[in-house]
Amino acid sequence: MKEVYTLIKEQFQNIGIVFRISQYEDKAEYQSHYLGLVWEYLYPLIQIGIYWLVFGIGLKHGNSTHGIDYLPWMVIGITPWFFMNRATLDASKSIYQRVGMVSKMKFPVSVLPTIKIVSNLSSFWTMLVFSIVVSFLYGVRPSIYWVQWIYYFICMIAWMLAFGIFNSTISLLVRDWRIMLQSLMRMLFYMSGVLFNFETNSFPAPFVHLLQLNPFFYVVSGFRDSMLGTMWFWQEPTLNIVFWGIVLFFFLVGSHLHYKFRSRFVDLI
């Protein structure tokens, strides 16, 4: 736990640097493109359009999910997924890309994954606003349940920090890990309830219970429960305990490996 405390302390002590560098990286990534930062928002919108046409119109023939039209149901779930997917992949290579530079200055390497996570928040907020607008157009109205999206946002950030520090370290120790992680994220896209509603009688109960243990599924379904007014997070105490247990596990393992091998990061590249 001491290593977890040290890790979190470094994040808060360098929060100003994290936000400044993340803003710089946002501008630098798209500065050579004609549309610039527009691509950061245009790409997910194009993806949403494709998924809606294929799964909402093509396969579901426009049918609703839990009485909610498929488009707002899908957009609300895919918004946190787009953020978590990109933040996970970017954080996994953050140390590998920058450790040579930061090793020459007094800079905590542990904040590199956090910078990648924060830099993806701008597109997340835009997508969240878009999902709310779409929901309004399809008749979804604000309710008291909306306040708990703050809880699920905290869950999402905590999970990204824990998973990010773990993946960024493992990627240096095992060169094939980043490729494996990309394949894993593609699989989790279809197993996290982003496009399909698994919590129905159409799927075996053991299969549904297994999927609910997935932290990505927990966050995606949590955002839907909040925005669509389905249920409160404390009504599923077991899932809450499992989720935070997984987060703590990755924090413990990730921080331990990070501090154990940090002095050798440059040699591992």
From TrEMBL:
Keywords: Cell membrane, Membrane, Transmembrane, Transmembrane helix, Transport. It is found in: Cell membrane. InterPro entries: ABC2_TM (IPR013525), ABC2_TM_bact-type (IPR047817). Pfam families: ABC2_membrane (PF01061). It is a multi-pass membrane protein. The keyword Transport applies. The keyword Transcription regulation does not apply. The chain crosses the membrane at residues 41-58, 70-89, 110-138, 150-175, 187-208, 241-259. Residues 35-261 form the ABC transmembrane type-2 domain. Belongs to the ABC-2 integral membrane protein family. PANTHER family: CAPSULE POLYSACCHARIDE EXPORT INNER-MEMBRANE PROTEIN CTRC (PTHR30413:SF10), INNER MEMBRANE TRANSPORT PERMEASE (PTHR30413). This is Transport permease protein. It comes from Lentilactobacillus raoultii.
